[in-house]
């Protein structure tokens, strides 16, 4: 079975006050997750941590599986399920996040 990877870049581009923790998880759409024999992706979840004062990029990677079946378009979702701000300073703008997907 061939595997591919899709990367979702999460960028904190404004508001560097305080540490920001971002929890993500994949959820089912029309695509089936592993370990199903017709699976098209491997489920994933975890935390991204942006340190206090840090702007920049972190990446969520999801493995896609080629199950060899001829099917139409399939979907799954990467959800931001929790956002935590740890010890914010006085700035009112805490964080702006941008998410972009790339097939690699």
Give the structure's gist in a few sentences.
This protein is mostly beta strands.
Description of the molecule:
The structure is a single chain. With 104 residues, the chain is mainly beta. The chain has one domain: Immunoglobulin-like. Helix content is 0%, strand content 57%. The chain is built from no helices and 6 strands. The chain has strands spanning 2-14, 19-28, 45-50, 56-66, 76-86, 96-103. The protein is elongated, with a radius of gyration of 16 Å. It starts with a strand and ends with a strand. The mean pLDDT is 85.
Helix and strand topology:
Blueprint: E1 2-14, E2 19-28, E3 45-50, E4 56-66, E5 76-86, E6 96-103
Antiparallel strand pairs: 1-4, 1-6, 2-3, 2-5
Query: What spatial form do the alpha-carbon principal axes imply?
Result: elongated
CATH second-level architecture:
Sandwich
Measured on Cα atoms, how large is the radius of gyration? 16 Å
Helical residues, percent: under 10%
Task: Note the beta-strand portion.
Answer: over 45%
Derived from helix and strand composition plus strand pairing, the structural class reads mainly beta
State the CATH superfamily name. Answer: CalX-beta domain
Which segments are poorly predicted (pLDDT under 50) over 5 or more consecutive residues? none
Using the coordinates above, name the CATH class: Mainly Beta
Number of domains: 1
Average per-residue pLDDT, rounded, comes to 85
Find the CATH topology: Immunoglobulin-like
Count of DSSP-assigned helices: 0
Strands side by side in the biggest sheet: 4-1-6
Oligomer: single chain
- Strand tally: 6
Order of helices and strands: EEEEEE
C-alpha termini separation: 17 Å
Q: Quick one: biggest sheet?
A: 3 strands, antiparallel
């Amino acid at each position: 079975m061939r595997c591919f990877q899709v990367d979702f870049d999460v960028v904190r581009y404004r508001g560097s006050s305080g540490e920001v923790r971002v929890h993500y998880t994949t959820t089912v759409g029309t695509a089936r997750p592993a370990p199903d024999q017709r699976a098209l992706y491997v489920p994933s979840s975890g935390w991204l941590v942006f340190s206090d004062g840090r702007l920049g990029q972190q990446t969520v990677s999801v493995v896609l599986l080629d199950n060899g079946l001829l099917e139409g378009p399939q979907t799954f979702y990467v959800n931001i399920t929790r956002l935590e701000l740890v010890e914010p300073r006085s700035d009112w703008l805490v964080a702006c996040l941008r998410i972009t997907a790339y097939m690699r």
